[in-house]
Automatic annotation (TrEMBL):
Residues 18-150 form the dUTPase-like domain. Its cofactor is Mg(2+). The gene is dut. This is Deoxyuridine 5'-triphosphate nucleotidohydrolase. Its EC number is 3.6.1.23. NCBIfam families: dut, PRK00601.1. SUPFAM superfamilies: dUTPase-like.
Amino acid sequence: MSKVTVSVRPLPHFEGLQLPAYETIGSAGMDVRAAVTEEDPIMLQPGERAMIPTGLSVAIPQGYEIQVRPRSGLAAKHGLTCLNTPGTIDSDYRGEIKVILINLGQEAFTIQRGERIAQLVLAPVTQLAWEEVESLDETERGAGGFGSTGR
Ligand SMILES: O=c1ccn([C@H]2C[C@H](O)[C@@H](COP(=O)(O)OP(=O)(O)OP(=O)(O)O)O2)c(=O)[nH]1
Ligand SMILES: [Mg+2]
């Protein structure tokens, strides 16, 4: 399988952590780790959210994005998810990738340094160009939506 090369710049606080990697040969996402300090893990009380640093900044080739998606294990076991899922990392963003985690569970959850908190999925992006018109073609659906076809 061909792979797209993405430049990655580990920041000083990434020191000692592992770069995100595919856990299995067929994985769509690479798990990304929390670059919080060992002395200062982030505790999320129920309902709380935080921006978790990853210690990584990247240069994605134009025509691609990285999506930051939740891990199902953290969601199912602890109610932890990405608030803005899927998070979008634009190809021209050079700042640190951060993960906006929210605790929708019923117990506090502590994010330790090196914990795999989310997954990064590289995806192709097609930009659109508007063509402004006065009317649109008719379809069977028309303006029906939001459950118009029934349950
Ligand atoms: O989960 C995320 C989402 C975004 N970003 C960074 C990369 C992205 O390229 C930038 C902007 O994200 P987005 O467009 O979603 O946020 P915005 O609120 O529209 O901010 P901006 O006005 O900077 O575009 O923030 C992250 O690090 N993590
Ligand atoms: Mg934006």
